[in-house]
Amino acid sequence: MAEYAVELRNVWKRFPGPGGEVVTAVRDVSLKIADGEFFALLGPSGCGKTTSLRMIAGFELPTEGEVFLHGRPMGRTPPFQRPVNTVFQSYALFPHMTIGENVAFGLQMKKVDRQEVQRRVGEALEMVRLSGYERRKPKQLSGGQQQRIALARALVNRPEVLLLDEPLGALDLKLRKEMQLELKKLQREVGITFIFVTHDQEEALTMSDRIAVMEGGVALQVGDANDIYEHPNCRFVADFIGETNFLDGVVGALEPGKARVDAAGGVSLWAHTPQPVTPGQKVTVTIRPEKMHIRPTATDVNLLSGRVTDVVYIGTDTHYGVTLAGGQTIRVREQNYSAESRLLAREGEPVSVRFAIEAARVLTE
Amino acid sequence: MIQSFRENRRLQGFLLILPTLLVMLVMLVLPLTLTVITSFGQRDADGNVIYTFTLENYWRLLGFTETGWDDLYLGILMRSLWLAVQTTVIVILMAYPLAYFIARAPEKRRNFLLFLVLIPLWTNFIIRIYAWVMILRGQGVLNSALGGVAGLLSIPFTPFDFYPSQGAVLVGMVYEFLPFMILPIYTSLEKIEPNLYEAAADLYANAFHTFWRVTVPLSMPGVVAGTILTFVPVIGTFVVSDILGGRQVILVGNLVQRQFLDARNPPFGSAASIILLLMTLALTLYYTRRFGLGEEIAAG
Ligand SMILES: Nc1ncnc2c1ncn2[C@@H]1O[C@H](COP(=O)(O)OP(=O)(O)OP(=O)(O)O)[C@@H](O)[C@H]1O
Ligand SMILES: [Mg+2]
Asked: Which CATH architecture describes the domain A243-363?
């Protein structure tokens, strides 16, 4: 089906700032989220994730552009008429109601009959493994339990789309990891589209089918975890997801699909060009540390000589800092996979760093 | 010695409440005990108290006299109670929307609006009540205004007898106690987390349902506090009824005051105070049992 569960078409959101200026929270964002997808909005603080989510829920209206739910334009439809539910970061459980009443609230508002409400509340609590807590008040539950109730309260309504705004933000690391897997499993079971906001890249990579990386109100790149890690389309995405090296330089020679980039100090390398470039253009090359090697059996095209400035041994890997002729420092990660791994170079020793052309990517922005 | 004082939490606690304890003892417990003792006493021909033990004062209050059943005093009690109920209900109905409006106003404007609510309290209580006499009396502001309108429409107009009357007393009470209801309700409304409203909207509740299922229950602590702050003083006050009732509307407060000052019958006045106290206590206890003091509902 060509219809998407959620579509944002050229959505902008501007707020009046405190000093009368205009704050643009979301800039021309277009997203298409398929039915049943686990979709993450990932980005640093203030990049407009919450605002995007709130526009889908209907708490904010776009200044420009349109939000569609299953092809229906939402226009000015108020939140209570949208077939979506939200899990708030602070849970927002009603403190004066019991857990049972909290979970039943949405169904009662939809005038579902009493027995059906009771049955579904029971099911929802079972789903989050909190059966028997109906009569407690939210305050009498731990943070993790409250989080699960917030989830049950939303899911019991069987929304078309579930929106989650950093739902695990308040949990400690261990519980957070557990809930990540649990949420993912739950989403597979119920088959509801999840849109999940987080600023934690690992969380996004672990849980999502696809990720939109946002920055400054712009959705920079949308893709699955592998895509975003291996094929970042700009410097920000490459930097935000995982660890990487950047080398600034100028395009020298061109060949189909690759280019020679000349960096400072006579450092020169060949890199893959996903976007067309022209000779003389200023570009950045990104290379992930684990895709480079300092083993001395060199047959690759890219061979950069430098001097080891630091060595960090962490068991599974050894990290080397290597300073190149132009003064650039790059980080190289060697896996210690052989039975008797030993250091390949010591501090101060000259080494050659080698990597495949495909491992290096030319970024134009 | 010093060390043990540091660790002695009970002693510390005792010292902290000591000043209040002393004040309460001197200003509350002693007079109250004296009142209880006096209420069982008699009065001699000169108006002095004879300390005996008789229930006569209480019997008289309940309506038993030598000449038979007389519901004069019970009537006064009932009237006071009824006036307090009316005042409280009207004050809640007027204060709630106002408090709601202030709590929902932009943050910067809220303080200004609260300030407006408090301005009347800067004027002396008695003066504020006399101001109502000026408004309500035969040639007062209200009658002049109505007369003016009637004149414009050429309708014959005879001034209303707004004052003195029981209605005037009610108006005065409502006016007097409005701020004491607005403030606690405002405080509890303002404490409600905005994302609870959003959660309700998210769960398909329209404005009406959100108000009744979220706003009202969460603001109940304020309503309870405001009710106690209004009901208890209204039932015992005598100044408003004295001034706006033109000494014709007699409430328990007036009864007590007159027994002490005019009739020179302290034992009877004491008995009336004790009855008033017990009644207030019983109602307050019942009310707080029924609706709680609100602490368990407080947002969290
Ligand atoms: N109601 C508002 N009025 C004015 N500015 C706002 C409003 N809401 C958000 N903003 C601004 O819009 C930008 C994006 O905010 P948003 O809450 O969407 O960020 P976020 O990505 O969710 O950040 P975080 O990870 O910190 O929650 C911020 O600069 C913020 O200050
Ligand atoms: Mg946010």
From this structure: Beta Barrel (2.40)
E strand or H helix at B227: helix B216-236
pTM of the model: 0.82
3-state SS class at A8: strand
Distance separating alpha carbons of residues A181 and A187, to the nearest angstrom:
10
pLDDT tens for the 365 residues of chain A, in order: 457 999 999 999 999 988 889 999 999 999 999 999 999 999 999 999 999 999 999 999 999 999 999 999 999 999 999 999 999 988 999 999 999 999 999 999 999 999 999 999 999 999 888 999 999 999 999 988 999 999 999 999 999 999 999 988 878 888 889 889 989 999 999 899 999 999 999 999 999 999 999 999 999 999 999 999 999 999 999 999 999 999 999 999 899 989 999 998 888 899 999 989 999 999 999 999 999 988 755 566 788 889 999 999 988 899 999 999 889 999 999 988 887 777 888 888 888 898 989 899 999 87
φ, ψ for residue B295, nearest 5 deg: -70, -30
What's the token pair of residue B60?
């008289």
Architecture per CATH, B75-299 = Orthogonal Bundle (1.10)
Instruction: Write the Ramachandran bin of A70: left for phi over 0, alpha for psi from -120 to 50, otherwise beta.
Output: left
A247 strand-pairing partners: A285
Chain A residues in contact with B214 by the CB 8 A cut-off are 94
Q: Which CATH architecture has domain A6-237?
A: 3-Layer(aba) Sandwich (3.40)
The domain segmentation of chain B, as residue ranges, is: 75-299
Pairing mode, strands A258-263 and A268-272? antiparallel
**What would the two tokens of residue A91 be?**
């849970």
Query: What's the longest Cα–Cα distance across chain A?
Result: 77
Instruction: Provide the ipTM.
Output: 0.83
For A157, the token pair is 């309504």
Q: Report the residue of B191, B195, B204, B210 to disrupt the A interface, i.e. the one with the largest count of A CBs within 10 Å.
A: B204
Interval between CA B155 and ligand 2 midpoint (Å)? 65
What does the block give as tokens for A326? Answer: 């132009």
Q: What's the Cα-to-Cα distance from A324 to each of A245, B83, B152, rounded to whole Å?
A: 12, 91, 98
Q: Ligand 1 site: residues with CB under 6 angstroms?
A: A 15, 23, 25, 43, 45-51, 199
Q: Are B218 and B192 in contact (CB under 8 A)?
A: yes
Q: Tell me the domain boundaries of chain A.
A: 6-237, 243-363
